[in-house]
Amino acid sequence: MNNAFIFDMDGVIIDSEPVWERYEQIFLPELLGKDVYAKIKDQILGNSVSGIYKAAVQWGFKMTKKEFEQIYDRYAEIVYEEAKFTDGIQELVDKLISINFTLGLVSSSRQYWINLVFKKLGSDNIFRCVLSLDSYDRKPKPFPDGYLEAINLLGSVPEKTIILEDSNRGIQAAKASGAFTICLQENLPKGYLPPNADKYVTSIRELIQQIESITI
After folding, report:
1. Phi, psi at 198, each rounded to 5°
2. Rounded to whole angstroms, how far apart are CA atoms 54 and 32?
3. Could you give the C-alpha distances from 182 to 51, 133, 167, 185, in angstroms and in order?
4. In Å, how far are 4, 25, 30, 78, 144 from 171, measured between CA atoms?
5. What is the residue-level pLDDT of the chain in tens, covering all 216 positions?
6. Does residue 89 sit in helix, strand or coil?
7. What CA–CA distance (Å, rounded) separates 123 from 73?
8. CA-CA distances (angstroms) from residue 13 to 42, 86, 203?
9. So what's the pLDDT on residue 123?
10. Residue 134 in contact with residue 140, Cβ under 8 Å?
11. From CA 108, how far away is CA 49, in angstroms rounded?
12. Angle 17-32/65-82 helices, nearest 10 degrees?
């Protein structure tokens, strides 16, 4: 039975949320209309494109989902080019591999976006399991289904799995899977701290120092 470590992507591997927010504040009010945008803006952080689209449609937004996704994909190319990797992420990956963790990734982002990040990272072969919850009609976070699927694919069980998350939806999903859940605070917006994680770390560097003391 493998020890598994599963990453979220946005806000964990790459500090993309502030870049997304900057662009979404520009294009979403125009795309959705200011009234619809105002009603759903608090649902955007940690949500998938499908989730954002569904929320907008409930308030009368009119556009096909395919067109909506294509617009987001064009912005994704800009966002992930600009966004910086979280400091120390490669060192954490190397450390986890050295102490025999099997690595996975579960993200609310579209598969195309994950591919953009992996191309930039240059380490797409280190993750044995990569799941996009948005691209393959899986239940979104806060449902634990994606994490449970990844744990199984990694040849592990929740009791031998650590999940690194940052958003409220992500923490809820990770906790519901039964895995040991760590909240990374490094890239969180000021004043935003999801409750109920098993452990909180201020940075990837702090986690590297502590990872061997976490018993699962």
Report:
1. -75, -25
2. 12
3. 24, 20, 11, 10
4. 17, 25, 31, 27, 10
5. 899 999 999 999 999 999 999 999 999 999 999 999 999 999 887 789 999 999 999 999 999 999 999 999 999 999 999 999 999 999 999 999 999 999 999 999 999 999 999 999 886 578 999 999 997 778 999 999 999 999 999 999 999 999 999 999 999 999 999 999 999 999 999 899 999 999 999 999 999 999 999 988
6. helix
7. 22
8. 23, 6, 11
9. 65
10. yes
11. 8
12. 150
> Quick count: other Cβ atoms within 10 Å of Cβ 191?
5
Angle at 16 between CA 167 and CA 54, to 5 degrees: 60
Adjacent-strand bridge partners of 107: 132
pLDDT at res. 122: 83
Residue 72, both tokens: 């987001």
Which residues contact residue 55 at a Cβ distance below 8 angstroms, ignoring those fewer than 6 apart?
A: 40, 43, 47
Residue 5 Cα to chain centre, angstroms: 14
Over its C-alpha atoms, the chain yields an Rg (Å, rounded) of 17
Instruction: Give the closest residue to 209 by CA, choosing from 95, 121, 116.
Output: 95
Q: For residue 83, which amino acid is it?
A: A
CB proximity list for 153: less than 8 A, separation 6 or greater: 104, 128, 129
Asked whether the whole model's pTM tops 0.85, one would answer: yes
DSSP 8-state code for residue 28? H
pLDDT score recorded for residue 137? 74
